[in-house]
Amino acid sequence: MGQLINLEIDGKKVQVPEGTLVVDAAKRVGVDIPVFCYHPKMEPVGMCRMCLVEIGRPQFNRETGEFDRDDDGNPVIQFGPKQETACTVQVSEGMVVRGFSDDVARARKDIIEFLLTSHPLDCPVCDKGGECPLQNLTMEFGSGNSRFLYDEKKHLSKQVPLGELIYLDRERCIQCARCVRFQDEIVDDAVIGFENRGRSLQIVSYSEPGFDSYFSGNTTDICPVGALTTSDFRFGARPWELNSVASICTHCPVGCNLTLNVRREDKSGGGFAVKRVLPRQNEEVNEIWICDKGRFAHHYGSSDDRLTQPLVRVNGELTPASWEEAFDLVADSLMGAGSDLVTLASGRLSNEDLFNLRSTTEHIGGKTALYSEMAGGDLVAQVGVGQGTNFSGLGPESTIFIVACDLEEEAPIYWLRVKQAAERGAKLIVANPRYTKIERYATHVIRYPYGAEAALVLAMMNSLSKKRVELPARYQEIDRSRDVQDAARDFAEADNAIVLFGSEGTGLHSSRQLSQACANLLVLTDHVGKANNGLIGVWPRANTQGAWDMGFRPVDDLSELIRSQKALYIVAADPAGDDPAFVEALKSADFLVVQELFLTETAKLADVVLPAQSFIEREGTLTNGERRVQRFYSAVRERSQARPDFSITALIGKRAGIELEDRLAVRVMEQIAGQVPDYADASYDQICAVVEQWPIIGRADLYYGGTSYENSQGIGFQLLPGVQKGEQVSLTAVGPSESVSTTDVDLIAVPVSILYDRGLTVVATDLLHQRIPEPYAILHPQTSTPMGIREGAYIRLNLSGTEVEVIAHLDETIPEGVVLLPRSMGIPIHRPTPADIMVSEQAVT
Ligand code: SF4
Ligand code: SF4
Ligand code: FES
């Protein structure tokens, strides 16, 4: 913090750090200076003049070399001849600000009249009406009359799709440039901009498809008028009709804090329906931003395809049944299987669900398995980031190492937070076999062949330690690389160091090697056991870390495990949908029960299907990548027979003779706190604790921060990693990688993660269909050209015996001899796999 400056704003004394803007200093003492173009998360531009104030400074006497004082000894304050913009002027010692004098009021009245010269004043039909800064400030400071003729207003188009997600009403735009600056400054996707001049100036999209950014929805929150609206909310409801419910995004491990706006409506049978999703401020997680997946991909909750009642197979057909019948049948069958039961669950479930699942399964004598191809959750529990970690606190003294991860695709808000840390001076090491967007901010870029991710981390350790790990001959180049050594040195010398490891090109085995190598690097360099240091898994699901914490572990040969059991209890996982090769194994079980939201390919094979509630309908907690436990609440009352997962499992458990909580998630959390040592302090009281956050947003003055919601339901509770609790950690042998590498075969297919995939919770949102691609493969032109494959052609791939048809995309930034295949797109790719391209006649264009 810089030197503290004392000043007075509207009679209130305030002390703020040097460099603070007057508008922010005023906010700290409850003086709300109206703004339009200023936003506390962006650089000021002084474009709209709404924040004009009178500013006085102590009068300096050049003759005496001192400040003049009045008879009482107080400094004489000299006010400038003109008003100044509070959003561009920094505080200075002794400054006096008049934010609400008569002259200031007159200036504001003029500015508002000017802004309204061509504004359509269609508040009654505007989506922003009721929460509109322009409407509110006009009511507060406007004159009520205009000297400009209504007929002379300039008319512009009113429903312009900037893309399929965001619409622009050109008449309403007040040219504040918040949207343009957000895209440029905050998220580095400069895909919209101003075109023309004067009253004809308008926002346009430069990208194809339109407004091509994962963060576009945030512009609708910060637009101070109704010019930008989301296509799923526009004309859908009025703000004053909406109730707000706190929630957590369930799409990735960031765990962005959300507010679900709900309203009763006819199409929901008079019940509540989610009308829109907005960010909820959590400066330690998502600040006031969310990505478009989090904002739009909630419509699966209201999909007509949701399961609504239990189904039991009768004469080969899944047939509606009562819960009692279903529970009895499931409990009898699972108990009958005993130790031949396996419960397979994913990180889509809450901690409460997973706890009850494990308790029930173990009570019966069965085994649990995590449906995940990423390892390392146990290591994150041990050497994960320390309590108090906050990306906002990382600057020049910090190094962030991102390995095997396309951060923007896998966890968009982590991308944003890491980018900001780099802009504040943090060093960034990005290791990936191909270009990813976060490289724009990298201090060190390291390339390695797919399959060599753990070797790369070991090579970094080799350059720091006398005790070397011998790497295979094919990785000698990495081991000797100057780039690797330089990056390792910056990592070791940093005061704070964080590693984010993802799943780019890895399978379970290589992920295990990689996570262990990353944990070792952190231990070796003593970057564990303290805030802003440690390991973060960029997991495929929102609560994969919670699943590890609740005792679930992925298995090496899932097919074999499934095949060898008598009974299978599969919850929130669809192995048959992800890979048809699982179908035969699933069919071999004597009894299969599936607990799901939809009738998935796996559910279609089941003997019993149990309908589960979505995160919108029930409550619970999720543990994010930084091991912050956060709570979500029930927003919509479920009208079908679906139940929360923890409740279903508890009622099965009850029949099997174990008492588990089936009604209140809070009681399950109490049991978790009693039985899972890491969660001993994670009570709902802790999770729901509220702290004052800066900037202050979400209060009455929506003009300052936008329509993001204030967080009054809690910022969550970050767990202590083992080493911060005093557990001893040591270096653990990583072992050789069994993963096939580009150095072993001519052509290797590797899995990568993308944001808009064909996951169950994404495809149910029609709005996103334009963004969800057809199954595709990415190849280097040197790989494809000899076969005559051009951009956009259909090709058939043989993945070690399994054939798939995909569209070929050519990209010079990926290595030769590699085919990138996205996960969760119906392509059965679980790990690096030797591949052949079979070019049919239609395939070659
Ligand atoms: S569209 Fe909204 S945020 Fe963008 S310049 Fe216009 S008023 Fe400002
Ligand atoms: S970054 Fe992740 S958690 Fe945040 S809104 Fe997007 S998908 Fe959800
Ligand atoms: S000029 Fe200060 S808010 Fe626009």
Please give the structural blueprint:
Elements: E1 4-9, E2 12-17, H1 22-28, E3 52-58, E4 60-61, E5 66-67, E6 77-79, E7 84-85, E8 95-98, H2 102-115, H3 133-141, E9 160-161, E10 166-168, H4 178-186, E11 192-195, E12 202-205, H5 218-222, E13 228-230, E14 243-248, E15 257-264, E16 272-279, H6 292-296, E17 311-314, E18 317-320, H7 323-337, E19 341-345, H8 351-364, E20 367-370, H9 377-383, E21 398-403, H10 407-410, H11 412-423, E22 427-431, E23 444-446, H12 453-462, H13 476-480, H14 482-493, E24 496-501, H15 508-524, E25 534-537, H16 544-549, H17 558-563, E26 567-571, H18 575-578, H19 582-587, E27 591-596, H20 601-604, E28 608-611, E29 620-623, E30 628-632, H21 645-655, H22 665-675, H23 684-687, H24 702-705, E31 717-718, E32 748-752, H25 760-763, E33 776-779, H26 781-784, E34 794-799, E35 802-810, E36 818-822, E37 833-838
Helix pairs in contact: 2-3, 7-21, 8-21, 8-22, 12-14, 12-15
Bound molecules: iron/sulfur cluster (SF4) (2 copies) and FE2/S2 (inorganic) cluster.
One iron/sulfur cluster (SF4) binds next to helix 6 and helix 11.
What does the model show?
With 845 residues, the chain is an alpha/beta fold. A hairpin with a 2-residue loop joins strand 17 (311-314) and strand 18. Helix 8 (351-364) runs parallel beside helix 21 (645-655), helix 8 packs across helix 22 (665-675) and helix 12 runs parallel beside helix 15. 54% of the residues are buried. The mean pLDDT is 95. The structure holds iron/sulfur cluster (2 copies) and FE2/S2 (inorganic) cluster (FES). FE2/S2 (inorganic) cluster is lined by residues 35-38, 46-51, 85, 87.
